[in-house]
Design a protein that fits this description.
Elements: E1 6-10, H1 15-26, E2 30-35, E3 53-57, E4 72-75, H2 82-87, H3 89-110, E5 113-119, H4 146-166, E6 170-175, E7 178-179, H5 190-199, E8 204-207, E9 213-215, E10 217-218, H6 219-231, E11 238-240, E12 245-247, H7 248-259, E13 265-268, H8 283-289, H9 297-314
Parallel strand pairs: 1-2, 1-4, 2-3, 4-5, 5-6, 6-11, 7-10, 8-13
Antiparallel strand pairs: 9-12
The chain binds uridine-5'-diphosphate.
Amino acid sequence: MAQQKVSVVTGAAGFIASHLCDYLLAKGNRVIGLDNLNTGTLRNLEHINSDDFVFINMDITGFIEVPGPVDFVYHMACPASPIDYLQMPLHTLKVGAVGTRNAIGLSKWKRARFLLASTSEVYGDPEVHPQKEDYWGNVNPIGPRSVYDEAKRYAETTTMAYHRQQGLDTRIIRIFNTYGPRMRPFDGRAVPTFIRQALEDKHLTVFGDGSQTRSFCFVSDLVEGIYRVMMSDHHMPINLGNPSECTIRDLAELIIRLTGSKSDVIYQILPTDDPRRRRPDISLAKKLLDWEPTVPVEDGLNKTIDWFKEYLREVV
Ligand code: UDP
């Protein structure tokens, strides 16, 4: 019988990484989840009932120590919602710089393959549309969002430098907007905010005139893509996202329709450096991984809405 693979997942109690833990356990991996519970919550992991799962409460900006052999390190930890990284700018920079080095250090020590969860934010407010991996981006280096964007750009640089200089076996994914169950209702991002507001019959707060676009990927599609990248032999960045693009105004209206809410849309000031548009070119992922999203946005939103209904009843 093949030896059981061991995966370390940083940020395991967060939205995307907790789904990744579920996926890896279903694949038969032993999973060691690390999180300091700063923006993540144990609630995202409490359904796991498996001897193959270990959780360690750990801040990865300090030395990372994990017992036993490790085959794969999925480095997912980072404050990722604009309100989180605007509230914790220095910590966000530290996670991207020191946390990434430490996660790489763990990979080196264990001779494990390393995957960096990077972001479409490396493209900033893109002048090229849709965004392909060879686009260098348009990030304002001193704007309020830059703590996240530049931290991830630096993390990519660090990953490539370890790959080139020391031969570390690395992967880089650029995650575009993702949504699904386990997003925090108050994390400030468009999907959880609009769903919460619609379910509470409050006005949906669209920033600017709502003509800015994003492309939303359901979390199960993303997690499948993450695993395929880890199993591939491609060291350069790969976009993972859903190319179906919509305006934020249309997203708000769709959520009002799907929830059957009596809410209206109200318009508020657009945050500084909010990207005008964003859509992944996923031809590389299609070609290399035979991957593309399969969950239609209405289905994904309905699943997310159902989860939020229950969550808001139980918790908020
Ligand atoms: N947005 C909005 N109202 C909200 C939250 C977000 O109109 O209550 C807008 C935001 O300005 C951006 C888009 O929705 O243009 C997506 O924002 P989100 O924070 O979800 O993701 P990101 O900006 O990181 O892509």
